[in-house]
Amino acid sequence: MPNLFGLRDLTAEQLTYLIGQSRSMLEVLQRPVPVVPALRGRRIGLMFFEPSTRTRMSFELAVKNLGADSLNFSAGGSSLSKGETLLDTAMTVSALGAHCIVVRDSHSGMPEFLSRHLDLPIINAGDGTNEHPTQALLDLVVMGEEWDDAFAGKTLSIVGDISRSRVARSNLWAARTLGMTVRLVAPRTFVDPGLEDCFGVPVFTDLEQGIRDADAVMALRVQKERRQAGGPYIPETLDYFLRYGLTRKKLDDLAPNAVLLHPGPVNRAVELAPDLLYNPDRSRIQRQVTAGVAVRMAVLYWALGASDE
Amino acid sequence: MDEAQVQECTGAMISQLQSGIPDGQPVIVVGIREGGDVLGLRIADGLREAGVDVAGVGALDITLYRDDFGHRTHWPDVRDSDIPVAIDNSTIILVDDVLFTGRTVRAAMNALLDYGRPDRVVLAVLVDRHARQLPICADVVGARLDAERDILCQVQFREQGADSDQVLVSGAV
Q: How far is B61 from chain A (nearest CA, A)?
């Protein structure tokens, strides 16, 4: 079954395939009628047990652009509040005729768990702190546009709330597979020691060193909501901005060729200066959103069209 | 069919296309990947040499419009389509190497109409096989092949890495 649990499992060839397919889907998005009948009659269950704007909307759009139908589920107002388990909800979506399920949940490993009980492709739209594969794929598509897909040897600096970030993990797996160098840049409380050991990547507590001469800088959102309940120390946001916030000047001085990425949503004046957010010379944040639709089209088309080896 | 015959057929197709193009209307040549795009480039070159004002040359990948999705065995491969100019009110010369069941052309027409509303679409194929499964026929044909359905017909062009242009017809597959 063609599942997408994470980028950890993918080879360089498979990553390259999905990046290439996403580029073809970007061309579809340019057409006067950006809708193709590729998945006509297929139903995709979109099960989001956590809040989402970009990922959810882009999956919905991807489903529509491929001519398929979506079965939408959101935790609020569903039988979940009546005590139904996530698995039972997924079984219901399956019985309603879904051909594929896209799932986001706060529990790491949930997509894999569902796939053990359901005989249909499962796509991970973010599971706990584990992986967010379609996000990292869109990051690759956007970075690849800058580098003509020559990823090997390029340096990506990931700045921010890394230990909680499934985006960082998916990017770390893919970067390792594609031969990129990754630097983690954050206060120590934002990086699990296990993470740097696992990936063998350096941690910089100093932003200037961490982003110097990088080819891409990815800022991550400070996840205030995940840090409330007795979590590690969160710095004062102004203090964080002064030390780790990205500004035009810092990028110009330290990483003059780097493009800026952010998975969103952005905390303005925390992770980056507001004037950087839509700066056309530097920021690729809007492009990431567009590429996200194409990546999700490519992943859905693959999941429903590929057979087992 | 050897290289000389392929070129002779292509030349005849270009002459026939040239005489059928109304004056003053933009002409766009669109080849269906893979094979039709190579032939499309040759036809566009030939038309330009003959003085026809070709406004653009494009290529269509019809994977997303196929009607056999889910029946295939490998990972699907969607390649880029490239329609470089607006097609509204134009004459489109849709080019493929082999016309067989008609399913590819059906898919290509659906794909094409997502780019706009051409005034006219003309279908030009190098080899017209019988055994159509849909009511589609070509306007301009290089050669006709009357063969059973299980006979394989393959067109190879130099541009795709072949040693020479040729049309191969082989026994039951």
A: 9
Nearest residue on chain B to A31, alpha-carbon basis: B115
Q: Which of A1, A301, A308 to mutate to test the interface with B (most CBs of B within 10 A)?
A: A301
Whether residue B80 and residue A305 make contact (CB cut-off 8 A), yes or no, is no
Nearest chain A residue to B86, by CA: A32
Residue showing tokens 């072949």: B162
- CA atoms of A237 and A233, how far apart (whole Å): 12
Dump pLDDT digits (tens) for A139-196.
999 999 999 999 999 999 999 999 889 999 999 999 999 999 999 999 998 998 888 8
**Global ipTM:** 0.87
Reduced to 3 states (helix: H, G, I; strand: E, B; else coil), residue A192 is coil
Contact A28 B64 (CB under 8 A): yes
d(CA B32, CA B92): 12
Query: What is the number of CB-based contacts under 8 A between chain A and chain B?
Result: 58
Residue to test with chain A: of B78, B79, B83, B113, most A Cβ within 10 A? B78
Which amino acid is present at A60? E
Span B97-128, pLDDT tens digits: 999 999 999 999 999 999 999 999 999 999 99
The closest of A24, A290, A283, A28 to A138, measured between CA atoms, is: A290
The Cα-based distances of B88 to A247, B83, B117 in angstroms read 45, 12, 5
Strand ranges (E), chain B? 27-32, 54-60, 91-99, 120-129, 140-145, 151-156, 166-172
Enter the pTM of the model. Answer: 0.92
